[in-house]
Amino acid sequence: MLRLNVSMKSSENGGAGTLSIGALAARFGLATHVLRHWETMGLLHPGRDAGGRRRYGADDLTRVATILILKEAGLALNTIGSLSATVDRTARYKILRPVAEELRSRIAAAQTSLELIEGGLNCEYEDVTQCPNYRRLIAERVGPEVRPESQ
């Protein structure tokens, strides 16, 4: 879910089934100041109880989970804010396309790293640099040999 603007505020359900800022933060392993910061950035819009304390409902849980997933994907908070503020498909594409390309690149690099590590784990040679898989991966990284120019 990329759309963060949910019309119902937490306070509209009368406070039933809502969480305090501390309970919401604990649920996601966050510090409460993180949620307050996201609120100042316009990413969260918690309801308030009669005493003025923040109350978070199901929609807020969805927003926090979405923000965390998008941050893990590499999006900055201001980008997440821009994304949540738009319903235009073209604008969403312009925001997400470069992020998707960067994520694909990171995944490819992680796959190569994992292949090297697993090759080391499965290598039967005393010296891992002698393993055929290791040598292939290193050769791919180094590229073609550079030959001295003839004079």
Automatic annotation (TrEMBL):
GO terms for molecular function: DNA binding; DNA-binding transcription factor activity. PROSITE patterns: HTH_MERR_2. It comes from Streptomyces lavendofoliae. InterPro entries: DNA-bd_dom_put_sf, MerR-type_HTH_dom, MerR_fam. The keyword Nucleotide-binding does not apply. SUPFAM superfamilies: Putative DNA-binding domain (SSF46955). PANTHER family: MERR-FAMILY TRANSCRIPTIONAL REGULATOR (PTHR30204:SF69), REDOX-CYCLING DRUG-SENSING TRANSCRIPTIONAL ACTIVATOR SOXR (PTHR30204). Pfam families: MerR_1. Keywords: DNA-binding, Repressor, Transcription, Transcription regulation. Residues 18-86 form the HTH merR-type domain. This is MerR family transcriptional regulator.
